[in-house]
Amino acid sequence: MLIDALQFSKPGRERFQEWRDAGLAAVHVTTAIWEDSTETMRELGRWQRLLTEHADLLTEGRGADDIRAAKAEGRTAVVFGFQNSTPFEDDLDLVGAFHQAGVRIAQLTYNTQNSAGAGCWEHEDTGLSRTYGVNLIREMNQVGMLVDVSHCNERTCLEAFEASEKPVAITHANPRDYVGGDVELAVRNKSADVLKTMAQQDGVIGLSMYPRLAPNGTDCSLDDFCDMVAWTVDLIGVDHVGLGSDFYTGHGDEELVWWRQGRWSRSPMVPISGVVEFPGWFDAAKGYRDVLDGLRKRGMTDEEVAKVAGENWLRLFDATFGTFHKQAG
Amino acid sequence: MLIDALQFSKPGRERFQEWRDAGLAAVHVTTAIWEDSTETMRELGRWQRLLTEHADLLTEGRGADDIRAAKAEGRTAVVFGFQNSTPFEDDLDLVGAFHQAGVRIAQLTYNTQNSAGAGCWEHEDTGLSRTYGVNLIREMNQVGMLVDVSHCNERTCLEAFEASEKPVAITHANPRDYVGGDVELAVRNKSADVLKTMAQQDGVIGLSMYPRLAPNGTDCSLDDFCDMVAWTVDLIGVDHVGLGSDFYTGHGDEELVWWRQGRWSRSPMVPISGVVEFPGWFDAAKGYRDVLDGLRKRGMTDEEVAKVAGENWLRLFDATFGTFHKQAG
């Protein structure tokens, strides 16, 4: 059971074939960064067309059972998610509406402050709003949408854990204490406090090979990555660590500019250094297997490796995705 | 020159006639609270229709000169504003677009946190976002839209003053130190620190008879109000005090619920105690004159009373409203 808890490549058959070659039972894909509700519905519509056109390779992952079925059928379940809460437009009813449309995971914020909370580029003392932020998490808990705090700042993460009645995910980030402050987007990584609190609530972090967050940055080796996985397992336990590569390819500078500054800025706050090259060893098809082999070499049992590979995500999805209209409160 | 820097009554000829009877040269009206860009454009369209239908009483106030002309013609200039930045949808281009559509004043936030800053119902340590918040103020400065922090919390006010190159308004609020903590919405009132910093930058506060903010609350007398005006003039100087009644009438509970909780909550965070009764002495047509008489009785000169009545707002509008397509940076 292999699951990647975040990829954001330009979708197309080449990618979908890679997913199959890698043996991925599920990939969480991004359908919104700064988009509003209408723009996001259009993107979901484009994905529905892709699911139909490439039904030999893909299926939709609305629940953990869809992922189990996908694995059995030799297909990859696509789990739809947002990297920001902009599509909800501060309207609680839109949370249920997007759940109906298939969305199962949403970050409260991207890198900046919004009505719900604060991203990692803001001051550290700004957190979850006690108004919409608390209500949004309650609504997501209720309709069955997994709360993701991957890009939130420290205080928003901690307050989100407190506000959520269900476990919370960090789909793609790394431990700050391990990686250190030298990587380009070090501020995106998570403190030990955040990781431990997430784990206490039975949440899961997806560790990433994204060079701007990874140990040794662009020089991150397979060993560097596996060492980080082992270190994180030691810190918070093997039940709370998974993979969330943040892998992307196929996008140009225009998309990068959109991700970095949306429409809220006329210039980048963080230098835009071009589309990133992922480490050579992280071949989209083969890289996952090499990581899992590396973990076995570090003394992890098959059962432990299976948890990191995907079983932890499956447990979390079972606990948080509502697969029906609305879950009972 | 009499200007009310905020009224939010249901618009109609009865109100417009009252404005004329009061001798109001300008009224700043609210066209958005939680509305998005499309909803706000529709509201502005409804107002354009009203301006046409009631052109004997009304004109549009896009610049201070429009207000001077309105006074000379015996009409009231309507100045369009927002009590929140939701219509901009975090898109800097929409600031200029709404300026083109006639909007000249906008609050950064209503009562809650958004991408730009935090309202008075949030934690006090959440402030202006260093991302969109700073950029939004720069854009408003540039296109000629007055920044209003009436509903912002302490830190957001102070950081907005710092970020703005032009004076900032508090169109409707009262001094917290004078009114005290017993009124229903005491948290909406402003600290001495905020008032002084605003004044140093040549901003203006509009003092309000709204019983939930006013001295002695629902029992606020004409004397109570005039004493507060005099106290505020003593604190920050006569150049920085004006009127901003926050007067409203004609709305029902449904509108109150919308103002208080938008779509971001399913229940009120602050009890909804019904549509407010303004003090009996604040008759919409005669109340302003009684206040100005009361100030004269407290020893203010005609020149000083004129400043409070409207000249201060006119100076601030001259300094901040762009009347052309775009002002030079």
From TrEMBL, chains A, B:
Among InterPro entries, the record links this protein to:
Metal_Hydrolase, Pept_M19
User: Molecular function (GO) terms listed?
Assistant: metallodipeptidase activity
The record's SUPFAM superfamilies line, in alphabetical order, gives: Metallo-dependent hydrolases
Mark the transmembrane ranges: none
Record GO biological process = proteolysis
Q: Where would one find coiled-coil regions in this protein?
A: none
Spell out the PANTHER family in the cross-references. Answer: DIPEPTIDASE (PTHR10443:SF12), MICROSOMAL DIPEPTIDASE (PTHR10443)
Name used for this protein in its record: Dipeptidase
Q: Which organism is it from?
A: Sinosporangium siamense
